[in-house]
Amino acid sequence: RQMCKEAAYILRRIRDDKDLLNYCESINIKIGDKLDFIDFDSFDKTAIVRINGIERRISPKATTDIYLKEI
């Protein structure tokens, strides 16, 4: 399901893949985080989200293996 602009989500699961888990750690996102979805970058579809008041960008490759629940 596609993310909706200005919607809020809880990060529920991250696929168990070493590279993905390292990536998530490097951008400081973890299970249980609340994400406010802002938009997708028009160039490469990078997800732009806000976590704890800080804007972060999540790679399109990673977004396919990060599972969210809308709140």
Outline the structure in words:
- This protein has helices spanning 18-26, 60-63, and strands at residues 8-14, 34-40, 47-51, 54-58, 66-70.
- The protein has 71 residues and is an alpha+beta fold.
- The protein starts with 7 loop residues before the first strand and ends with a strand.
- It has a five-stranded antiparallel β-sheet.
- Arrangement of strands in the largest sheet: 4-3-2-1-5
Instruction: Output the radius of gyration.
Output: 11 Å
What fraction strand? 35-45%
The largest sheet, given as strand count, sense and whether it forms a barrel, is: 5 strands, antiparallel
Specify the number of helices. 2
State the gist of this model.
The protein is of the alpha+beta class. It has two helices and five strands; from the N terminus they run βαβββαβ. It has a five-stranded antiparallel beta sheet with strand order 4-3-2-1-5.
